[in-house]
Amino acid sequence: MTATDARPAPSGSQVRAATRATYAAFIGSGFAFASWASRIPQVRTPLDLGPSELGLVLLSIAAGSVVALPASGPLIARFGSRRTVISTAVLLAAAVALVAVGSQVGVLPLVVGLFLMGVANGAWDVAMNVQAAVVERLLGRAVMSRFHAGFSLGTVVGAGVGAAMVALDVSVLAHLLAVAVLVGVAVPLAVRDFVPDVHDDGTRDGAPAPRDSALRAWREPRTLLIGVFVLAFAFAEGAANDWISVALIDGHDTSAVVGTLGYAVFLVAMTAVRWVGPALLERWGRVPMVRALAVLSVAGLLLFVFGGHPAVAFAGALLWGAGASLGFPVGMSAAADDPARSAGRVSVVASIGYCAFLGGPPLIGVLGQSVGVLQALTVVAVLLAVATAIAGALRPPPGQLPSRGCEALRSGPTRRTGPGPVRIDP
User: Fold this and answer.
1) C or N terminus of the chain, fewer CB within 10 Å?
2) Is the alpha carbon torsion for 196, 200, 203, 206 positive or negative?
3) Beta-carbon contacts of residue 195 (< 8 Å; ≥ 6 apart)
């Protein structure tokens, strides 16, 4: 690395622009995915897909993500998070357009489009989390959870627009083509303000990472433990996404509307706590905070399952969502503590964590066939207990400041050195 290869540390205005760009990446990702998800019923009907056939079609998204997630670490280390998000946003836009066409033409283009969506979404997810960790480090504040709240906001907007399109009788083709154009143009323009994936010395995108850092991360005990921790919280979130409404309807004998409202309570609680997460993490630190939230989530889950009344179940859903909110973003921050190896480690943690979204729904479904969906959800409590036990892995390695600086903020004041990023005194 020569002197000409280095870039100066980002200025305050550049960091603020990167913060806005990172929000745009998270919101755009959530908006694109929810836009497709909101039209699944209108895609299923004209193609005459039964439940099992639709399940196989939807599996193509998961297959694409499984392919992309392990490969995303080396890709980001080579090209940087900015180029990766730009490229994957364009790919995802093309995939959404293909899905739109497939919804009218046939299953084959639909499956190909969904597979490419999974590929693009997997790499995009890792890249935007790498950039979010960089921004956290420059700000010296625990803002990762707010970026994930931005993703939740994007899903709400995407689902709301989708519902409006259904109400206005806008075709799937027209709706998803418009989404493809919007995402393919707006996101690449917004993320041009990403800062380089930097070392503390300001070196440029990806350059500091050892060539084998992505592969080496799979052999690091701490990284693997963080992955298992994220998997547990992802399972808690994914189980709620897939089964809260069904459990309320089948287990608590509520109407479909009440079931949907119960899921909405979970989402609102999760989004709210993610938004206030920075203050909580800076006040209490990573490990105590996530352990307390895991206990809160288990308490909410038990209320939901054994409360015996829909009102108690709603209170349980509220606590469940609040408690499950910070595990995923905090795990991503912990994986990125060392900026030189953040791409590979975030890729590994995301790959392990996403197994929960792939394996969780069928596991709950199989258990639900035997004991009922409501009782099957208790498996979430077991995984959260495991997460509580291994949460100590979230502490930064010896001599390494946390990527978001929350523990460092508790032990010393912050100061700004020149026009560049916030520096944290040990």
Assistant:
1) C
2) negative
3) 10, 14, 15, 18, 131, 134, 135, 138
**Tokens, residue 330:** 């905090």
Give the helix/strand (H/E) hosting 414. Answer: strand 414-416
> 167-173 contacts: CB < 8 A, separation 24 or more?
172/39, 172/42, 172/43, 172/100, 172/103, 172/104, 173/100, 173/101, 173/103, 173/104
pLDDT higher than 80, residue 108? yes
For residues 409-422, b (16+ Cβ closer than 10 Å) or e, as one string? Answer: beeeeeeeeeebbb
Q: Which two tokens stand for residue 96?
A: 């959404």
- Please state, in angstroms and rounded to a whole number, the distance separating the CA atoms of residues 156 and 425: 39
Alpha-carbon gap, residue 210 to 221, rounded angstroms: 18
- Contact call for residues 29 and 151 (beta carbons, < 8 A): yes
Place of tokens 């905070």: 289
Please work out, in degrees rounded to the nearest 5, the angle formed at the alpha carbon of residue 239 by the alpha carbons of 234 and 240.
100
Predicted pLDDT of residue 232: 93
Provide the residue type at 109 as one letter: P
Amino acid at 411: S
Element (H or E) spanning 422, and its range? strand 422-424
426: three-class secondary structure by DSSP: coil
What are the CB-based long-range contacts (under 8 Å, 24+) for 159-162?
A: 159/34, 159/37, 159/38, 161/31, 161/35, 161/38, 162/34, 162/35, 162/37, 162/38, 162/39
Query: Which range scores top for mean pLDDT: 15-19, 139-143, 213-217?
Result: 15-19
pLDDT of residue 342: 75
Is the pLDDT assigned to residue 395 strictly greater than 60?
Answer: yes
More confident of the two residues 262 and 312: 312
Coil/strand/helix, residue 368: helix
CA 40 vs CA 66, 106, 169, 321: distances in Å = 21, 14, 14, 25
Spatial distance between the Cα atoms of 426 and 278, rounded to a whole number of angstroms: 20
